[in-house]
Structure formats: structure tokens, C-alpha cells
Amino acid sequence: MNMRSNIALSALVCAGIIAWLSGFVSRQLVDPAEIKTDAVKIEVAETAPAGAGEAKKAGPEPILALLKDADVARGEKVAKACAACHTFDKGGKNGVGPNLYGIIGRKKQSHEGFAYSGSLTDTGGDTWTYTEISHFIYKPKAYAAGTKMTYAGLKKTADRAAVVAYLRTLADTPAALPTDAEIAADK
Hints:
By secondary structure, the chain is mainly alpha-helical. The chain has 2 domains: 1-34; 64-185, Cytochrome c-like domain (Cytochrome Bc1 Complex, Chain D, domain 2), CATH 1.10.760. Helices cover 37% and strands 0% of the residues. The protein is built from 7 helices and no strands. It is elongated, with a radius of gyration of 31 Å. The N and C termini lie far apart (97 Å). Mean pLDDT is 85; it is low at 51-55.
């Protein structure tokens, strides 16, 4: 064999050893073991089988019983997220959403100068009651599918009660708190 053949054969053997070593090292660095649990859990609402007892009431938990003792200051703080689209002052201008001063007891879709989507009165009557506002801010798109409001919703019952209690204070004469009979009927 000549020297060129020896060099070529040595280079081929070296390349094979390097390829084998790099495969071995890469298998050691990257464990191809199967993942046994998901990295991110995706929660799915469980549905009860047909006839498995009384179904849970859909929608938010009632807030009427909480309004009397709700923390108005907390409601004002939570409502700051609403200030991106709404104003709260008496006679305030509309923003992306209508001004919310005097909202409790107001007819839905009635604030002057605001172009509503037209879908708010399709659910729950034509007046903003404590319960209607609670249901709306819980999940606006579920309450009124055609609403312009893009807010995802306020799920915590205590926060919704606090925001509604705060909205109650935004009036020349705040609406009366719910009666015991109204609270009992709301459950």
C-alpha cells in the first residue's frame, strides 16, 4: 500500500470514529425518553353524565347578598382596568365604551352619544340591575355575543360584588340595596 492509501484509510477510520462518538455524545446529552406528564395542564370543564343529579347553575355566583358589605374602595381599584375604555364621572364623555356614571337602573344601550352593538337587550331585560351587571362583567361575550366589549371577564365573585358596589356609588342617588326577598330569589 502506498502512503496516500494509508492516509485516506486513516482519514476514513477517523471520520467513522468521530461520527460514532458524536452520535454517542448526542444521545447522552439529549435524553430521548418519553415525557410522562404534560408540561402545561389544560383544564377542561367536566360535564356530568346525563341524569347524574341536578346540574350546576350556569354562569356567575350571585352577588346580591355580598353588596351590603362589599368593599367599595376595592371595587374602585378593580374598576381601574375598566378606565381604559370607560369614564366614571358625572357627565363624562364616552370612550371606547359608554360613560358608567349612573349605570345601576339605567336602560341598557341608552347612554346618549354611544353607538351600541345592539345585543345587550337580548339577555336579561332592558335595565342594568345589580344581577345583570354582574352577569355581564363575568363574561361579556357569553352575556351578549355581539357586544363590542372585548374584556375577558371578572371571575372572582368578591371582585364583581366590589365593582358593582362601587358602580352603585356613581349616582346622584344610589340605587337601593337588594331586599332580603331579592337576595333569596337570586340564589
